[in-house]
Design a protein that fits this description.
The protein has 322 residues and is mostly beta strands. It contains 4 helices and 25 strands.
């Protein structure tokens, strides 16, 4: 059986009026929400969340800004900085204490966890290891690469960072790792693995993948293995602004990479891959670049304390090692 409903003219007018009013209100709301979102984007707050999975403590960086890390030997300090409007906040659960922008992994945290993982879920967070008065005694994994995002910020080392015993450090990033002037990253019996800008599409940057500059040192004192694979930026112009840029691995001005006592130190560097560079500029595109101003900084070196040393460099736009 079919039922036919007839709408009188006054009812149709009422419905039409309601829809017209709703449309205007919705348009105003949409405009207001768009304006609000613009202002919120301009004052984005630096936020991070933390959680635990078994013996792993996980930090997720949810917006742009800086995360500073240091160790006293009995605790690790994670500090959020440079969030817009000076606001930096932590949220999450796990064995740790939070006070404002500071998250402290205290003695109870170090007893509960043996691995600290730092990940990003937003563009342009930066991670900096500050000068530490004590050693890191746990494994650290930094996963700062995500193909669905544009790129992440630099990972830098400033001062002394020592990973004792068999503690390992693994870095995966689609941007640069920089050892700042006079900084030292020391491994003992744990492995150091760096994969820098090695995703399918290189990041557009006028930077070397790994920069070890001005008497900075990456070294292993014990049996830990060192594996470094890095690519220089894909370039943002037709000229190179600095002869130290766009290398895969740049060890310059007294910088040093020193392997351990056994096993191997393996370094593979790829220069930029940008066909717009001229033949003259390509001569500056080394995969692995070791340079010294001996008078000012002393010798730049890649060596070991007994481990085999394997260094492979791919020049600008090259697919074969040179």
């Amino acid at each position: 059986m079919q039922t036919h409903i007839r709408f009188s003219s006054w009812f149709r007018s009422l419905v039409s009026s309601l829809f017209a009013s709703h449309s205007a209100t919705t348009s105003r709301r949409r405009l207001r929400r768009f304006s609000d979102s613009e202002s919120l984007e301009a004052r984005t707050l630096l936020t991070a969340s933390y959680s635990a999975s078994g013996s792993e403590f996980i930090i997720d960086l949810n917006s742009a800004g800086d995360l500073e890390i240091s160790s006293t030997g009995t605790s690790y300090l994670f500090t959020l900085k440079n969030g817009s409007a000076g606001t930096n906040t932590w949220t999450g659960t796990g064995t740790a204490s939070v006070s404002g922008a500071n998250l402290t992994a205290n003695a109870a945290s170090l007893a509960a966890y043996d691995t600290f993982t730092i990940r990003r879920s937003a563009n342009f967070p930066r991670v900096q290891f500050l000068n530490s008065t004590g050693n890191y005694t746990d494994n650290f994994n930094l996963s700062m690469s995500n193909g669905s995002l544009d790129r992440s910020g630099c990972i830098t080392f400033n001062g002394t960072s020592t990973f004792a015993n068999s503690s390992s450090l693994r870095i995966l990033t689609d941007y640069q790792v920089a050892m700042l002037a006079d900084s030292t990253l020391t491994m003992t019996n744990g492995n150091l693995d760096m994969s820098i800008n090695m995703q399918a599409t290189p990041s557009v940057m006028e930077l070397s993948g790994l920069m070890v500059n001005s008497n900075a040192t990456i070294q292993t004192n014990g049996t830990g293995q060192t594996t470094i694979e890095a690519r220089g930026g894909n370039g943002v112009s037709s000229t190179i602004q600095n002869v130290y840029n766009n290398k895969g691995v740049a060890v310059i001005n007294g910088g040093k990479i020193i392997g351990g006592t056994t096993g191997s130190l393996s370094i593979t560097g790829y220069s930029y891959n940008n066909l717009t560079f001229t033949a003259t500029n390509k001569s500056d595109g080394q995969g692995v670049f070791v340079y010294s101003n001996v008078t000012a900084n002393g010798m730049s070196t890649i060596t070991s304390r007994g481990a085999n040393v394997v260094v492979t460099g791919y020049g600008a736009n090259d697919i074969t090692a040179n």
